[in-house]
Amino acid sequence: MKMIDSLQNPSVKKWKKLHTKKEREKTNTFLVEGFHLVEEALKSDVEITTIIVDQDANLPRALDFSNVSMTYVSNQVMRAISETETPQGIIAVCKKQETKDISSGRGQKWLLLDRIQDPGNVGTMIRTADAAGLDGVLLSPGCADIYNAKTIRATQGSLFHIPVVTAELTTWLNTFKEDSVPVYGTALEGGVPYQEMDSNPERGFALIVGNEGSGVDASLLSQTDKNLYVPIYGKAESLNVSLAAGILLYYLRG
Fold first, then answer.
1. Residues in a beta bridge with 205
2. CB 205 within 8 A of CB 183
3. Which of 18, 49, 185, 190 is the most buried (most CB within 10 A)?
4. What is the DSSP string of 33-77?
5. DSSP 97
6. Which CATH number fits domain 2-95: 3.40.50.150, 3.40.50.720, 3.40.50.2300, 3.30.1330.30?
7. Locate the RNA 2-O ribose methyltransferase substrate binding domain: which residues (predicted)?
8. What is the pTM of this model?
């Protein structure tokens, strides 16, 4: 059993650097923290390079660690590596998943995120897309990093369940059109209340939701089949983008 109790240990310094996007991209690795998320990682096909465990942590018997490297650390080291206020005492160091071979097709259902900058919103929408049975999520390059700790926590493991890919959305809009998959944008101006549109789940759909402040880019909205919005009946100025996305996804999927 490997044990580390020094904050100056090279491995500890390396793991702490993974709190930054720059280091995650440089090493092609990221951290997954907490019993539930580590379990989801273990059940997926993601490569786990090591699992870091607090020396005082009580590991659930349900977790299978037989095929992974384990490193035990002191409470002090765990607190230094953790990105939560109350660490659960377990962190997995994972390799970024290779972009899966994905393709659109008639009947498929996709969520497209245009420059969503809040990691919590990105993670929540990945989770919602998973719950709604979508085929995948496409993120524009301006979105929050999917391997940010807040994003990963918000997905609650859904990051390991469906394809989540960063891509140029315009290219995919052309692909959806070629495959006769309807593309819907979200916009108040020029849009229609979503209840006025007849959904056709058999054809599938691609739904675009946009930046928290400026919405979907106008160049993308100009390429959609129709633009939708969720009506506001009270005095609130707007809905949170992840909540609006959830309403629309469940309506469109039928």
1. 109
2. yes
3. 185
4. ESHHHHHHHHHSS--EEEEEEETT----TT---TTS-EEEE-HHH
5. P
6. 3.30.1330.30
7. 31-100
8. 0.94
